[in-house]
Amino acid sequence: PLRTMQLVRERSVEALLGRSGLKHPALAAEIRRRFGSSDVGSGALVREPVIEGAAPFQVEGRTFADCAGSLLHPEVIRAISSDKAGDYRFPPEAQPYRHQIEAWRHLTASERNSVLVSSGTGSGKTECFLMPLLHDLASEAERSGRLSGVRALALYPLNALIASQEERLRAWTAPFGGKVRFGLYNGLTPERLRAQDRPGPEQVADRETLRSDPPPILVTNVTMLEYMLVRRIDRPLVDNSQGQLRWIILDEAHGYVGSSAAEIALLLRRVLLTFGVRAQDVRFVATSATIGGEGVDVTDDLRHFLRDISGADERRVHVVLGQRERVLLPEPAASPILSATDLASRDRVAASPAVQAFVREAERNPVPLARAASLLVPVGQPLEDVVEAIASDSDHQRGPLLPLRIHGFLRAVPGLWSCINPDC
Fold this sequence. Notes:
single chain, 16 helices
């Protein structure tokens, strides 16, 4: 990844020079030096990369099979473990993360609790609310049969995020045979579909059916929700869902700040009035990226945020934080220096004091590239090789010493393109 980012930098500079039409060799050389410098912090095109530790999230020891009938309805476990779930399948013997189980405990309790889940990328925040939501709907469908009327509103800030949930929802609701359905409502939703174009019974894909026979799960965005509350044509959707709404889900809640947070708070109060329910009747769920750094406790701030934005009773608002496993390191070696052959040994890499210092820092916070280079210079090997050795998964039994993500930042220049495909 570090070499790739160096290539992006070099090719972007050449593209910029080519586009500028500069003929003066000295001026072109100076632009190359400034924009293509290895001192990436001073570059105007590419900012310094950041290396983030991505250790696995903590588990509790329970499997999905263990949760069947206790935390989650058995039909939900069957749905998510079915071979037909494809990429969204969770084997019964797989272990959910600890923060997922904590969220399920709150959201499947008899009282209507609200939860804000704050955790890193890839930590399964969607599963924190979608599985207990399906548990709730499966339990109702078991008593009452096929469900009609919106029970859950899921608000996503972007249409791309809405579309990304479609396959997952289809995979997990299809086993219910149409008793538990979902619908996506945005500007791309057609007014009506021909019979031959309709999807399976688990999905409502046209506005006409959304209004006449609303699905229990409705995924939409803030703009469409605003329209839904005021447009006469959408009134049947609301009328056919009166008094039934009991879930409101806000994805990417950290995007609601300032005036946008005030607007969403007022919108949610209008939603409650329009659907004929009270805040205490609804489970509010918000998901957020990790907020706060090392030693900063933001639990109360997050609880107050969800309380203020939703109007929920603060005593029933819970904050669930995803925590990563701590890397187990051996006793440090006497010397940090590693040979090229040492880099192939996970144990020797893990014992280097310099590597251990980097691992502990990357566990706590993202590490700028210059800082990583400073920490790892005592190893005596090229930075790219050491980083690769730390994240290597060649040890199939134990996995990487510390999985890593490398974040790169490239200034968007209109008309400037750079391809990193070597065969381009």
